[in-house]
Amino acid sequence: MVLDSTGKLGLWRLGDIRDGILGHIAHKLRLAFQFPVLIQPAYLDERPSARPTWKGLSSSVFLEQVHRRHSAGTFVSLGITEANIVPDARHNFLFGYAYLGLPAAVISLHAMEADAPTPDILIMRAALVAVHEIGHTLGLEHHSYESGVNCVMVGDAKVDSIETLDGGTSQFCEACRLACARFFQHRAVPMAPALSRRLPRAWK
Ligand SMILES: [Zn+2]
Ligand SMILES: [Zn+2]
Hints:
two-stranded parallel sheet; 6 helices; 7 strands; five-stranded mixed sheet; alpha/beta; binds zinc ion
């Protein structure tokens, strides 16, 4: 069953997410973007993204699956899984994956829960990565490493371990916040009235 996600952020699960996590991630995203979040009741099929000789599921196939189900009018479609995801045979893990401007992104909890964090910490990590990847779907690129900008859109090279993830901010800097606002001016999805004000300090 697929529910109408018009005007919402649609969440798609690939495999089960353990109890007490998904609803909280959805809540964080609702606060960050000021869009209602819909958790689709249907599950994505794991078989197309399975790569037996890789260290995880194919992140690009997972992303394609989510993107295929994206409908016009949906704010963004986000895939979420507890399975490991990788872009190719050489990678060990990925936190998240998105293409610039494509209205779909995916995140994996697998590497975020490697140190058996409390649910609160896992939810914070997942929400940070989700905001970063959704930032890419809104057309935001990475800040350079050296710029010293405190922003959720720092490069992936910096957010490459649990430690740097926990030390990172989950908020957009002013430049990215303005870029988000510009994006909404050119998109069919109307910007929530409070978004331009609420984005930079939506949650920590
Ligand atoms: Zn990135
Ligand atoms: Zn920024």
